[in-house]
Amino acid sequence: MRKYILFLKYAISSFTSFGLDILLFSIFSFWLKEIFPQSFIILSTIGARILSSLFNYIVNKHVVFKSNSHKTIAKYYLLSFCQMITSSLGVYVLYQWIGKGEIVIKIVVDIFLFLISFFIQRVWVFKNQRNVDVVMEND
Fold this sequence. Notes:
mainly alpha
C-alpha cells in the first residue's frame, strides 16, 4: 500500500510541476519563437525547467519522499539536467521531423521521462531506508 501512496504523491507533485513546466514552456515559446526561430524550443525548455524544477525538488524532498539528506539537491539537479537535455533534444528532433505541434510533442516526451524519473528519484536521489523497503517489496 505504501508504494501506491508514494507513487500517488509523486504523480500529484509531478503533474503540478508538469503543468507549471508546460505553462512556462508555452509562454517562453510564444515570446522566443520569432526572436530565435532555430533554438526557441531548447531555450524555452531550459527556462521552463529551471523554474519548475525548484518547485518540484522542494515538494519531492519534503512531501513525497520525506528525505532528510542534505545531498539530494546535487543528485536531483543532475537528474533534472539530464531530463532537460533529453526533453529538449527529443522535442527538437520530433518537431523538426513533424514540423508542428511542439507543445503536444513536449507532453508526450515528458510523460515518458516522468516514469523513468520516478524510479531514479526513488532509488537514487531521495534514497532512504523507507524507499529501499518499498523497492524491495516490489522485487
